[in-house]
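Troubleshooting entry. Yesterday's outputs looked truncated, so today I'm pasting the complete records for two proteins to confirm everything comes through intact. If either block looks cut off, that's the bug. Protein one:
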Amino acid sequence: MKHYAVIPARYASTRFPGKPLALLNGKPMLQHVYENVSATKLFDEVFIATDDLRIAAAGESFGATVVMTDSSLPSGTDRVAALTEMMEPDCVIINVQGDEPLISKTPLAALLKAFEDNDVRIASLMTPLDTPEDLNNPNIVKVVTDTRSNALYFSRSTIPFDRDGKGKVNYFRHIGVYAFRYEALHEFVALSPGILENTEKLEQLRALEHGLPIRMVITDYQGIGIDSPNDLRRVEQFLKDI
């Protein structure tokens, strides 16, 4: 089975325009993501998918394989799906967001390993969450799973609710790195957003609403997403401290 990684990157971020090209320790953030994914040696090919010529030029300058996609595509997942004509159908495709400059081999290898179970069609990452501030932060997405580690629900609210306050609940934060079998990716992007997705503004709920299971993989990777220049400075400091 072939393994591919696609890094969708767009310039027109509302909160942080030009985010993929923002410099992190002297290199575009997108370059950090591409180099980290490529260095894992887990993938037959690594692509950058973008609709912006500035991002394409930057990617080509550091040796990436860049594919231009239609600017009308509504999401990064759609941009990933647009590249599948360049892939063999018997494959797993990992969507690594362009603002994951700390991504490493361990969580990506764990995602790929999940597909050794033939029942797994979509997989994603989760990490333990235990600070009250994060539990109550709607920008941090929580996930609960069943006994097979398939997602039951994703929410910006604190789930599950500890009604009796016994403190014995294990909470998990969702990290938005996704892996798909080829056919599952096409099935997903063909679906229409449902009530839950439109309410929580969480794309992954589309899969659950339509009965597509998502296998959740526990990881120590924290996935520090970058949504503002302040986040970028926080990651710069983190890299200096390690």
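Protein two, checking that the full record survives here as well:
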Amino acid sequence: MKEIISRAMSSGMDFTRGSTIKAFLARLDIDQDVYDKVYITLKNMAFKHDFSNTHFDQRIVLLPHCLRNVEKCKAKFTELGYICAECGECDIGEIKKVADDLGYKGVYVVPGGSMARKVMEETKPAAVVGVACFLELAENMEQVVVYHIIPQGVPLLKEGCKNTLVDKEKLKEILKQR
């Protein structure tokens, strides 16, 4: 994968659009299964500089509701997703604390893409850090361009519809980018 990304970045192509990445990967005869992973990595690299130059108070974090410990979660559901009670039963409270301490505009725990779009329309961030499964993350990173929002994405380590996992250290590293 590193070789693919290295070749892509050295090609001089504009990788801010998914169609460009698909065309590049097709030329390299890369399997579609690899597409989402490469796309997310290239998108993160393409927008890293702009993201790093965006003030924390203009950034939001979108987390999937599947990160919650469904059996023990004390979060309340609102029109903009779940409000974390910071009960310690999952990683969301720790992630929220890091973002809050940095001065992020907000951390939103959402059940899907339509609510994520609603959050972005209501909060109007300049940048967003999204966490999701590979397919949803790739799709949503493509869509935020429509809103002129600078994306960074972190794929889930363990996918599924409940009790999923994210690489917290990688996520914290992205949250702290300056």
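Both blocks look complete. Sanity check on protein two: Residues 48-175 form one domain.
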